[in-house]
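Final report, closing paragraph on structural work. Over the funding period we assembled a curated collection of sequence-structure pairs, and we close with a single example.
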Amino acid sequence: MFAILCVLSSADCRVMHEEPPRLFETWADCEAASVIKFRDTLLIMEGTQYHSLDVDSYVNVATFACGNTLTSAAIRTILEKYNYAPTDTLVMFNVTSMSRLDFKVKYNNSNDFIPWKEDLLDFTFLKPHSSAWLGALKEADISVEEIVKRNTHEMHLLFEYLTENAYPFVFTTMEDYSHLPLIQKYKDNLVPLPGNGMFEYARSVDMLIEHDYFHPSGEGQVQMAKLTHDFIKKKYNIDG
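Its predicted structure, as stored:
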């Protein structure tokens, strides 16, 4: 048995991305509905036999609209702070847009997208597009090129940490980043989605959400979950 530590990114909106999309009055209403949707999705995913991975526990620090800096910091800190053993831990994450900017700050309750409390991690990140985030962005006066450089550095830190400490890990990419040296270096751990990225794969099988024609639909997510499941089993010689 092993624990799965997972970090994936999601968009900040009040729309339940499904067919057809559902619009809610508040983000809280959408969040409540997403809990029900998650249970429904688990039922759909029964066909993936994901339980054959014999998971003992599941830790998810996914955050709405997060960037790669959050992903890198959250995974590395939790693994080290709570002594997750490489022998029974599998790390999964998504490499999102390299142009997303995260601002790490001392823990507070201002970002309700953050799923953890201060007793878990003593830091948080400013809520994207909030007044605090916009103020920090203005003060930083940073170019897109520099943001990409920072994100690339943070992902280098994550990949190196996982590799040096022998953690099993797999990852996906939001789009086709196969040309990036960073992705090429760790391509053996990249889930081989047709088209190389989630967007390209979902588009190729016509499983994008009509509302924004970018995010994969619910069925598209299920198909990617199946591909990821099969890749994990093959890569780490898991029977069942």
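Residues 8-20, 35-45 have pLDDT under 50 and may be disordered. Strands lie at 2-7, 9-10, 15-16, 22-23, 55-60, 63-64, 89-95, 104-106, 123-125, 169-173. We thank the funder for supporting this effort.
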